[in-house]
Amino acid sequence: MIERYTLPEIGNIWSDENKYKIWLEIEILACEAQVKLGRIPEDAVREIKAKAKFDIARILEIEAEVNHDVIAFLTNVAEFVGESSRFIHYGMTSSDVLDTTLAVQMKQAGELILDKVDQLIEVLRSKAVQYKDTVMVGRSHGVHAEPITFGFKLAVWYSEMQRNKKRLKNAIETISAGKISGAVGTFDHLDPFVEEYICKNMGLIPAAISTQILQRDRHAEFFSILAIIAASLEKIAVEIRHLQRSEVLEVEEPFGSKQKGSSAMPHKKNPILCERVSGMARLVRSNLIAALENVALWHERDISHSSVERVIAPDSTITLYYMLTRSIQILTGMVVHEEKMLENLNSTHGLVYSQAVLLNLVDKGVSREQAYRLVQRNALKVWENNNSLFDELIADHEILQHLSETELENIFNLNIRLKNIDIIFQRLGLQ
């Protein structure tokens, strides 16, 4: 068997060199299996293994004439092997080689992406623990809601990426299937042992059933998970972009000491890395549409999926790998302005405690409707009088009929409001 290849960079997976190496390995493994079945002379296979190689330039030259990539490859290999080449590709169809190779490549790419997901999860874990008690305001509809911590926000992303890891592992398992079953999948000219032998040696499972091709629901699942992961990365990027806005300025993505943000405005530090992640997520999502369109093909196969996959497979995997790399860079080097977080939390003068006041009034026997009216009345005065909610409440005699000043002080205690953060972190295994 050909010496196994090492691929440190995801782009190499989709190179012609790697593709043809996998093609040749499949063809040689098929010959080995045929020897075991007594269909091919052992001497011929020894000669094939000794002489078989390829020349990419020559393959492209032949392909320009015959307009068929697998035939061009086989013709070129035959030029090196000689007479014994008649046993190569015996009983097989082009898609046996193409689909099994694509499965290997997608598995290789998926495993590299999985490694990056693991790295990102570790960064999120570390940062969540670091900022577990860093208080900030939580926002809904972009408007201040209630207190949270920055570590809590990071823990939400950590949990999501844990789910993405599980999804990706399942998708890699689904895509790691090969097929060597002939022109319509019935093994008419092949023994199923050939498929089993090749798949075992390529680190794949044999598809339980196939036509001329592997069914494209497998590929659609893989691309859908890539799209979900890309969406999660965009979610993180969009949040950091919002937090970096001048009027917020709670978090900034890394900015190099010699970096320049604008050709016109020297003061600018723009979130370009996060914006890049957002833009690339659109590409990965759009490729999912093409993958879904590939599921429905004519009869036992047509070739409409092939041209699509030659674009979206390298594009989606390389793009997502890059997005993960940049996301790790962003989160590792981000600048967190803890004082600004606290300042922004306090900028609405205690309005973020309105629900706590409401519920304490309900606990005192006030109807929810009446309690809401009392709190809202005072909350609206905060804006009108440029005062704090606490001061407005202790000046409201109707409020003081139900809640004492000491009870209100406890309601406005941040530690009480965030008392369950530790429990949430324990649920996630974040210590």
- Which ranges are low-confidence, i.e. pLDDT below 50, for 5 or more consecutive residues? 1-7
For the termini, the CA-CA separation is: 48 Å
Spatial strand sequence of the major β-sheet: 1-2
CATH superfamily of the largest domain: Fumarase/aspartase (Central domain)
Biggest sheet statistics: 2 strands, antiparallel
Tally of strands: 6
CATH topology of the largest domain: Fumarase C, Chain A, domain 2
The CATH architecture of the largest domain comes to Up-down Bundle
Helical residue percent band: 55-70%
> Which shape, going by the Cα principal axes?
elongated
Q: Tell me the Rg in angstroms.
A: 31 Å
Elements, N to C (H/E): HHHHHHEEHEHEHEHHEHHHHHHHH
Count helical runs: 19
Overall pLDDT metric: 94
